[in-house]
Amino acid sequence: MKRNSFKLLTFAVALSTLFFTTSCSSDDDNGGTPDGSGQTEDRWITVAGAIMGTNDGTPGDGNGGTLVYSISKQDAQDPNKTFDVFENGYLVQSARTARLQSSVDGSTFFNIAYGGSNGGEFQKYVVGGGQDFSPIGGTVNISQYAGTNPRWAKLFDGDQTGVAVNVTSPQVNSDNDGNYLYTRGTATVLSLDLVNALISETKSYEIPLSAEEEALGHYIFRLDSPVLNAAGDKLIIGTWMRKTNPETGNSESDYERLGSKSIVVDYPSLDNPTIITSTVGYGDTSGYRSFNAFVAEDGNVYQATQRDSGGSHILKINQNNEYDNTFVFSLDTALGVTGSYIQNWRYAGNGIAFVHYTHDGAQTSSLSNQQQSYLARVDLNSSTAQQVDLPYHVDLYAFQYQGFVVDGNDVYVTVAPVGQDGNIYIINSITGEVTEGAKLINKPGNHFIGAF
Fold this sequence. Notes:
- The protein has 7 helices and 32 strands.
- By secondary structure, the protein is mostly beta strands.
- It has a single domain, classed as Methylamine Dehydrogenase, Chain H.
- The chain is globular, with a radius of gyration of 21 Å.
- The two termini are 23 Å apart.
């Protein structure tokens, strides 16, 4: 079954790819991206599902753990195939929704347990099909540095390195007379050797904002979604900002946001943290449980915002590791909505990305109490976007979604409302054509959180 909501003219496709193909490798010529995800003849597509919590759980909360199940690419493309991930999947270590990563070719799976008694423990698996995930190599626990709920991402460096980041609970600091000074936590950045399961480097430091910003009560609440720049010498780390009321010392929820910020540190030393600030976006840049920034073929980093007062943006960080404020991509403007919120996204190559989002006026599910999610195809070159033609439902919830498989020009996503069956869908990133793949069996309260 094919869906085609994008009626693109040939010259429009050419224009959309012109800028982003100036420095493509041979893999990129076959639909590959800077992460090396060229098309493979054969690979596993691993589907992940999150289980509803058992004690007073809410449908879609994912607090009961995570199952994974691998399917051949050929079977994933076949709408006549049916797979029951929640009945037959492999339970990965994690008290709550796991934070999952896979190798570019899908043959290796990585997990750092999130929460529980083994929170922070890294494990690597060989993917063997179905529920066959064989642990390989050693294990290492990073919880003493990154906490038991670590936020981490795999760098696009040939599956060599993961980076975990953490900020201790920020504390209000006052002078001897009780006058408010600032709110700060201690940040930690850790690099993890994925090949040998070893901690390569770790650094901790306070990262102050400007004196004026701190006096107003602004502070870094969380770090997440690190990405390695094209030169391989800097990590760019997203931030989630919050604010203290200097008069009361209490947290404020309604305040004027600063411009979007990121932390830049030297790599691989992790030294010299500095802050860069956008004048285009005013939201957080931390994402949630998936990648939130990518290096494109032009050598620049593209990064999404959340909780942005003007709706979500995709920002550009140039090769000098500074925000390029001449680049403006507003999802509100591109889609003709207000209050858009990018829940997660994936750069697919040639200036094209796919974005899970919600927006003002989207229906709220009576099952999960969450706003309905949608998927859009975004053209960063022309600053345009269009909703992908999928079977939408009020219970479709993608906030915890983590994995998109980019295989040449094909992008694999799982689509199923909370507690309902769904399918794998394959989207051609160039044409926008959507093909229905294998059926996925669901269970009440559970939801799918990605393809890897």
